[in-house]
Design brief:
Elements (H helix, E strand, L loop, with lengths): L9 H34 L8 E5 L10 E11 L2 E15 L5 E5 L10 E3 L4 E4 L4 E4 L17 E2 L1 E4 L2 E4 L15
Antiparallel strand pairs: 1-10, 2-3, 3-4, 4-8, 5-6, 6-7, 9-10
Length: 178
């Protein structure tokens, strides 16, 4: 005679079924959670720059001579947010009691740093000899710069100068934000 067939072990079946279910959940939940964490910066809203406080109106001379100021802003890079990071600089010139002119310090020709020359009452780019008037327009018709210095939007609020800082395409006759 043959040996009698053994009945299936019910306790063993429940243990194996629970292991399969728990293992399946873990193998699905962990990669999905990792995928959401990895893609999190992509689903956030992009950081749109607003106005940045740059200087006080009292720090500008009444004579209308421009002063150079650093622009400090919040830098957002994927998961990191860093406060008060230097992102550039601007020239601010007082044009009235509560009005200012703000010019970008980058030459529109090839992106060199433009300096102010008090003796010449204008701006000068040392890289390719571009010269700009006090209002940022091209001073020399032979200037290689395709346009005048880039003026930035500015507001005076409660004695403080707020600037919408942005960069523009170099080498283009049109002022195109990048």
């Amino acid at each position: 005679m043959t040996e009698p067939e053994k009945a299936p072990d019910r306790r063993n079946f429940v243990t194996k079924a629970a292991a399969v279910v728990i293992g399946g959940l873990i193998s699905v939940v962990a990669p999905v959670a990792g995928l959401f964490t990895t893609l999190d910066p992509l689903r956030r809203k992009s950081d749109t720059r607003g106005m940045v406080r740059v200087a006080t109106l009292s720090s500008l001379p009444d004579s209308g001579e421009p002063r150079k100021f650093p622009v400090l802003d919040t830098l957002v890079d994927a998961w990191n947010r860093t406060e008060n990071v230097p992102v550039g600089s601007v020239y601010i010139q007082k044009t009235g009691d509560d009005s200012v002119r703000v010019l970008h310090t980058v030459c529109p020709h090839l992106g060199c740093s433009v300096g102010y020359q008090a003796a010449a009452k204008g701006y000068f780019c040392p890289c390719h000899k571009s010269a700009f008037a006090l209002d940022g327009s091209i001073a020399d018709p032979k200037s290689p710069s395709p346009r005048g210095m880039d003026e930035l939007e500015a507001v005076v609020r409660d004695g403080e100068v707020w600037v919408k800082y942005q960069n523009f395409r170099k080498g283009s006759p049109e002022k195109v934000a990048v």
